[in-house]
Specification:
It holds the Pfam family Epimerase_2. Keywords: Isomerase. α14 links the parallel β12 and β13. α1 crosses α7, α1 packs across α16 and α3 crosses α4. Helices cover 46% and strands 15% of the residues. It has a seven-stranded parallel sheet with strand order 3-2-1-4-5-6-7, sandwiched between helices. The protein has two domains: 184 residues, Glycogen Phosphorylase B (Rossmann fold, 3-Layer(aba) Sandwich), CATH 3.40.50; 149 residues, Rossmann fold (3-Layer(aba) Sandwich). By secondary structure, the chain is α/β, with parallel strands linked by helices. It is built from 16 helices and 13 strands.
Length: 357
């Protein structure tokens, strides 16, 4: 059996590291296509090195651009690869433009599409990632859900065939990586002390491209940094906007660093006091690490973590961000296995193999 996997951004590299290994372990031939959506070395190449991902068979060199440009260019270039390779299954991950482009190409060429991390839903509904995810779910044959709530979301939209609760592949990798990291080496590199700093990330376009929202976030980080160190691995998109708008002064003492490799991010995450983020992946990885996240969004696909008081939806309300960051703790519920048992990758590979025979 031949499987073609489409990746283009950091969360997809992480998921592919788990699923690809399991596909190959079961004897399936995998063709890996990198769209080039994340072309920065720290956002792409280093993940391949540290996650030991196989070298992509095809690199589409799409790069940055509008949503239409990224999606359309990916479709045009990917279609040529798919026609040439004739895979039995096409796998897409998450909610990026690479995801929707891959799903559309596969569906139109009548190839079974498998969506890893299906069924998540959140506001605002016009968010590009939400549009990508919803459309992908409605044209996929295999819908691999990370949570039982995701299964329920699909059912409410009339989708029940081909839906599987498998758990979260990011949990698989987190468990594998967390005990193999030299934590002290990472903390020393960034001049940090365990449980005495806050980790922050910002990259969503509805935050970076809206100056008022971005100002609120940066100002909050600046205020927090007066009380406790804030380390901020900065996404290229965010850095570009801050340069254009000349907003650096808002960050105060915030310690800005380049994007970090996955193993370093896990080390920084597990030893942080709290996390402030608009990343869907990081707010969930914080839970894996037993750390609370302040979410810079009006809604989240991981709403179960908000309901369990592990995470808090502050959106871009400056006072709330600062308040929750400096609070001693949230009244958290006990840890639950919302995201499976750490064997999601194995389940996904077994289901694909079983149903394509």
């Amino acid at each position: 059996m031949k499987v073609l996997s489409v990746i283009g951004a950091r969360p997809q590299f992480i998921k592919e590291a788990v699923v690809g290994e399991q596909l190959r372990a079961l004897g399936m031939r995998e063709i890996l296509v990198h769209t080039g959506q994340h072309y920065d070395v720290n956002m792409s190449d280093v993940f391949f090195k540290y996650l030991k991902l196989k070298k992509p068979d095809y690199y589409l060199s799409v790069g940055s651009g509008t949503h239409a440009y990224q999606t359309g260019t990916t479709m045009i270039r990917l279609e040529e690869v798919v026609i040439k390779e004739k895979p039995d299954v096409l796998i897409v991950y998450g909610d990026t433009n690479a995801t929707i482009a891959g799903a559309l190409v596969g569906a139109k060429l009548k190839i079974s599409v498998a969506h890893v991390e299906a069924g998540l839903r959140q506001e605002p509904k016009d968010m590009p990632e939400e549009i990508n995810r919803v459309v992908t779910d409605h044209i996929s044959r295999f819908l691999f859900c990370p949570t039982k709530r995701a299964v329920d979301n699909l059912k409410s939209e009339g989708i029940s065939k081909g839906v599987y609760f498998v758990g979260d592949v990011m949990y698989d990798l987190f468990l594998k990586v967390k005990d193999s990291i030299d934590v002290q080496k990472v903390l020393k590199k960034y001049r940090l002390q365990r449980k005495n700093y806050i980790l922050a990330t910002v990259h969503r376009d509805f935050n970076t491209d809206n100056e008022e929202r971005l100002r609120n976030i940066l100002t909050a980080l600046g205020e927090i940094s007066r009380e406790i160190p804030v380390v901020f691995p900065m996404h290229p998109r965010t850095k570009k906007v801050i340069n254009q708008k000349n907003l650096w002064n808002l960050l105060g003492k915030t310690r800005v660093i380049d994007p970090v490799p996955y193993h370093e991010l896990v080390a920084l995450l597990t030893n942080s006091l709290k996390v402030i983020t608009d990343s869907g992946g990081l707010q969930k990885e914080a839970y894996f690490a037993g750390v609370s996240a302040i979410v810079l969004m009006p809604d989240t696909g991981w709403i179960e973590l908000v309901e369990a008081n592990w995470n808090y939806l502050a959106d871009t309300q400056k006072e709330l961000i600062v308040q929750k960051a400096l609070e001693s703790s949230l009244n958290k519920c006990p840890f639950e296995q919302f995201y499976g048992q750490g064997d999601a990758g194995k389940k996904i590979a077994e289901i694909i193999l079983r149903h394509q025979k």
